[in-house]
User: Fold this.
Amino acid sequence: MIKKVSVILPTYNEKDNIEELIAQIYHYIQKDLHEVIVVDDNSSDGTQEIIKKLKKNFKNLRHIVRKNKKGLPSAIWRGIIESKGNIVIWMDGDLSHPPKYIPMMLEYIEDYDVICASRYVNQGKDARSFIRVLASKAINLLAYLILGLKAKDLTSGFYVAKKDVFLKVRLMQTGFAEYCIRFTYDAIKNGFKFKEIGYFSPDRKKGVSKTQSNFNIFLKDGYLCVKEIIKLRFRK
Assistant:
């Protein structure tokens, strides 16, 4: 299989992280990288200006600015639709998903359809705050009990997938982390081969978290994840 990798970066106000992230992606995927697509929700902190400068130095760095639509899953889906590679990768724009793990993930793409970087399998670690780790593990346990999914990290957000997967599976366009739950569920239920590999997830060092900075948003995201699990259980 000839790999043509499209990396999708959904961003909103990530000026402190985006340059280093893009540089690392180009460093670690030199051979197979086809394009990097930044889907930005009209950042106001200087992220857009940084990307424009980086386009002069990085080949096939694409920049999509969305002014009338916002949200993580819809940004990722826009990138998937616009991608030209036969393999797509999506990851957060805050360096919580280290690009150094991408080569290892790509090693498995010959034999699997979806690779998820997981914090809760062998050699994985979640270095976020105790309450966030506890909430994440509780959601995964609930998904296992209700849906029977054996995936350990349903809210990772760090994926490699064959483009053909999206002929059958669509990403939901609303919410936040719950899109990961539905995507993993739908991919497995459609018979696609799914694998998790461990990675170390550092806590955010720069910039402002979109959830941690507001405890009410954090609680709302957890509620929506639980709601999605229950919805999938009774979906026909």
The longest strand covers residues 33-40. The chain has a mean pLDDT of 92.
